TrEMBL record:
UniProt KW NADP keyword: no
Protein name: Alcohol dehydrogenase
Alphabetically ordered keywords of this record: Oxidoreductase
Species, as recorded: Oleiharenicola lentus
GO MF annotation list: oxidoreductase activity
Domain Alcohol dehydrogenase-like C-terminal residues, every copy: 176-308
Pfam families assigned: ADH_N, ADH_zinc_N
Family annotation (InterPro entries): ADH-like_C (IPR013149), ADH-like_N (IPR013154), GroES-like_sf (IPR011032), NAD(P)-bd_dom_sf (IPR036291), Zn_alcohol_dh (IPR050129)
Domain Alcohol dehydrogenase-like N-terminal: start-end pairs: 24-125
Length: 348
């Protein structure tokens, strides 16, 4: 079969690889859609020390079971499925607390196991046994279902932010992840949802979603006053950083209201992970800062259920689809801000 194989920085050729073959306990999926993640883009541009090439990337997918050597599984040949991509090989205090995203005993699809930028993907026996496959029970398009994985990562942050009716929320970053955060805030009843970005094109796309305001981030810092004005001078109760930039992290601390909750959803580039932040904002404003990494199985389940409910605008978040052979075009579309989510269709 032809797969997009990561060989190193800026090397993602679509090349012939051996068809996957199954051992006991495994399943084979025919991949209908795999959306391109910001981390795929980052791996392509900068490499990733955690990924040992050659490796087939792609971890946000929907596929059909075409072969099974797991007869005891409730998932059967013909089922259309999505997958929680964290595989847990042992237990510890994090696994026992339901936070398998934090355990050292984990491996991940597209990092340690081949992913879904290919017409077929093998599901490891451990994932089948742990119930990581979830069956689609309606006819929602595969592109929409593929978004369950990144939406689950957003759910992980929200499971600790506790956004509700009393909250005003600002999201820095109008990419697909920022839009997902803003939409989740709205669905949880936030009074006001504001999205900021330094790319006017992204803000234009963001206005297609149910937001109260969009704010252009400017080099002179005037966007900070704009957010203060929009929130009656108090600043937002919750600020989520969905761009990988220290300037955005600083903006979050500056614009947050007193006693605000700030989530650094996006990390910084692994090559430059330190930043100068005005930590006195945390002190004087009594801010609560949290991070967010990957997702718990409960987050994935919740994201999948929300997409299934039809109340989440997954169809508006997927703006482009491409055949596998044109996967590198997806990166340009994402970087320019022309696309939100790009879905790859490996069967084409
Ligand atoms: Zn992802």
């Amino acid at each position: 079969m032809k797969a997009a194989v990561y060989l190193g920085k800026e090397q993602l050729p679509v090349q012939t690889v051996a068809d996957p073959t199954l051992d006991d306990g495994e399943m084979l999926l025919a991949i209908d859609s795999c959306s391109v993640c910001g981390t795929d883009l980052r791996t392509y541009r900068h490499g990733d020390a955690k990924i040992k090439p050659p490796r087939i990337l792609g971890h946000e997918f929907c596929g059909r079971v075409v072969e099974s050597r797991a007869p005891d599984s409730p998932i059967k040949v013909g089922d259309r499925v999505v997958m929680y991509i964290v595989l847990v090989s042992g237990t510890d205090r994090y696994v026992e607390a339901g936070r398998a995203n934090l355990t050292a005993n984990r491996t991940t699809i597209s990092y340690h196991h081949d992913g879904a930028f290919a017409p077929f993907m093998k599901v490891p026996a451990l994932a089948v046994r742990q119930g990581n496959l979830f069956k689609a029970t309606n006819d929602l398009p595969s592109d929409h279902l593929s978004v369950a994985e990144p939406l689950g990562c957003c759910m992980n942050a929200h499971s600790r932010l506790g956004i509700g009716l009393k909250d005003t929320v600002a999201v820095i970053g109008a990419g697909p992840i920022g839009i997902m955060h803003a939409t989740l805030a709205r669905l949880q009843g936030a009074q006001q949802v504001i999205v900021l970005d330094n790319n006017p094109r992204r803000l234009e796309m963001a206005r297609a979603f149910d937001l109260d305001a969009t704010v252009l981030v400017k080099p002179d810092g005037s966007h900070r006053e704009e957010v203060a004005r929009l929130t009656g001078g108090f600043g937002p109760d919750v600020v989520i950083v969905a761009v990988s930039a220290a300037a955005a992290q600083n903006d979050a601390l500056e614009i947050a209201g007193k006693a605000g909750r700030v989530n650094f959803f996006a990390g910084l580039p692994k090559s430059a992970p330190t930043a100068t932040l005005n930590v006195n904002t945390i002190h004087y404003k009594e801010l609560e800062i949290s991070g967010s990494y990957s997702e718990k199985k409960s987050d994935f389940q919740a994201a999948f259920a929300l997409i299934n409910s039809g109340r989440f605008p997954a169809g508006k978040i997927v703006t482009h689809t491409l055949p596998l052979a044109r996967i590198e075009e997806a990166f340009g579309l994402m970087e320019s801000g022309e696309a939100l989510k790009v879905c790859i269709h490996p069967q084409l």
